[in-house]
Structures are given as C-alpha cells and as structure tokens.
Amino acid sequence: QSALTQPRSVSGSPGQSVTISCTGTSSDVGGYNYVSWYQQHPGKAPKLMIYDVNRRPSGVPDRFSGSKSGNTASLTISGLQAEDEADYYCCSYAGRFVFGGGTKLTVL
Amino acid sequence: QVQLVQSGAEVKKPGASVKVSCKTSGYTFTTYYLHWVRQAPGQGLEWMGIMNPSGGDTNYAQKFQGRVTMTRDTSTSTVYMDLSSLRSEDTAVYYCARSQLPYKWFDPWGQGTLVTVSS
What angle (nearest 5°) sits at the alpha carbon of residue B84, between those of residues B76 and B22? Predict the structure, then answer.
C-alpha cells in the first residue's frame, strides 16, 4: 500500500479538464511544500511535471498546474490532449520520499 | 544536455546481488544528489535512497537498510546501486534520478534498468 492515496484512474475528453488528487498526512503532504508530480508513459521513465506544489519546469505546458490544500495535493490538466494519456504519480518529501500509487489518465 | 545513462538489464537468482550503474553527463557531478527509485511490474514508484556524490554520504530507506549500498566514482561521474540477498519481490525497473537538494524533486531520470530475480 502506497503512502499517498491517488485515484486509480481518471478520464476526460479532449479539451476537457481533469484533476488528480493525492492525499497524505500532516507528516508529508501537509507538512512540506515539496510535492512533485511525474508523468509516465508506458515503458518510459517518469518525467517531472510539477515541483514545489505548483511550479512548472521549463518546457512543461501551462495546461498543467498544481495546488495543495491541507493534506491533499492536486494536479489539474486543462485542455486535455491525446498525448496526456499516461500514468501520473505524486511524490512528497517526508524526511524520506513517499509516492502515490499512481493514476491512469485516459483521454477518451 | 543533462543525461543519466544506466547499465543494461540483469537476470539474477534468489540470494544473489546485483549492481546497477548510472553514468551522468552534462553537469558538474558533485553538485547534485542522486537517488534510486524502483518500480515493480505494474506497480508504483518506491524510493530507495539518496547519495551525495560530493562526499559519498548516503541515506537509505528503512526498508532497504542492510541490503542496499550506493557508491560513486567521481572520475567517471558514475553512481552505483548494489542490492544484495535478492528475492523475487525485487524484480523491478530500477531508476536513478537527480535532485538539486536532498529534499527536492527528481529531474531528470535515467532510462531504467530491469532486474529480474528468478530461479
């Protein structure tokens, strides 16, 4: 069982928005502003999409945004595109690193 | 550009050890931390530990303490992850990943190394 809880799957149509939640505790997500999100396509290495809760690395489209409220972080993808279909993982520093179980995003 | 290139796939028997390498390039080796993260087939990501290439100090996840050793070779800008007493549950893709600070995000990641443990 993963330390952070994510929905197993979410889906949306092209152009729509989806939000993936990541629930932890006050010892991880709620206690640090060091939440990051990773996108992983099948057979590929994870790719950083969001860091420090809501900051976007250079090259990541601004359709991707992050937020946090209490012990829950969220990744929102707006204007869904076919290439967004992938697995998404949240991660939080907690004295060590803990990951969510991953969410499969399907673009219908 | 920054690159982390890992060694090739391995097949090991239960009880054996495996050593995976991660050769870095495109930046000053001693100024970023290196982590190891693994992913069992069809499963999520699991953090194993961190190394500071500058001094060689390490911090391992409790689950792997006693079985994992992370080392580095500064002359080749390469870090190594040695996992001993392998069991079938250690079958996974092992990734190295870089971070600017020990508590910060992972970017970039190596391409991954599949380690299969089977009798």
Answer: 25
Contacts of A56 (CB under 8 A, 6+ apart): A49, A50, A62, A64, A65, A66
Is the minimum CB–CB distance between A2 and chain B shorter than 8 Å? yes
Question: Looking at beta carbons, which residues of chain B come within 8 Å of A34?
Answer: 103-105
- For an interface test with B, the pick among A89, A96, A98, A103 (most B C-beta atoms closer than 10 Å) comes out as A96
Residue with tokens 């994870």: A46
Pairing state between β A103-107 and A9-12: parallel
Under DSSP, the state recorded for A51 is B
Q: Does B63 touch chain A (CB under 8 A)?
A: no
Q: What is the pLDDT along chain A (108 residues), one digit of tens a residue?
A: 568 999 999 999 999 999 999 999 999 999 999 999 999 999 999 999 999 999 999 999 999 999 999 999 999 999 999 999 999 999 999 889 999 999 999 999
Backbone φ and ψ of B62, nearest 5°: -55, -35
